[in-house]
Amino acid sequence: MSIDTETARRVAHLARIAVPEEDLPALAGEFNAILGFIEQLSEVDVEGVEPMVSVTPMRLKRRDDVVTDGGQQQAVLANAPDAREGFFAVPKVVE
User: Disulfide-capable partner of 27 in 8, 58, 67, 77 (CB 3.0 to 4.6 Å)?
Assistant: First the structure.
């Protein structure tokens, strides 16, 4: 696939990026280089390769999935401009 200057102009417009007219050929060249790299990556055989979480083998830390209230109600409400009965108090917005 090849990107021409018209396609580069359209992509810049869709991305809401102001690209001067004289820079469009260079932008099209960069898009073509990116697409070439993606095509090169698609040629790699990844059959049987496990997905990685990190470059070093490790297990993710696990914890029990237990529902709690967090135990920090007072600490959270300490920064509230107005708190009543253990909740944030906000101005009425619907009449």
Answer: 8
Question: 47-91: per-residue pLDDT in tens?
Answer: 988 888 778 877 778 888 888 878 888 898 998 999 999 899 998
Are 5 and 28 contacting, i.e. CB atoms less than 8 angstroms apart? Answer: yes
For the residues of 16-81, what is the DSSP string, one character each? T----GGGHHHHHHHHHHHHHHHHHHHTS--TTPPP-SSSS--PPP---------S-HHHHHTT-S
Rg (CA), the chain: 27
* C-beta separation of 27 from 12 below 8 A: yes
Amino acid (1-letter code) at residue 31: F
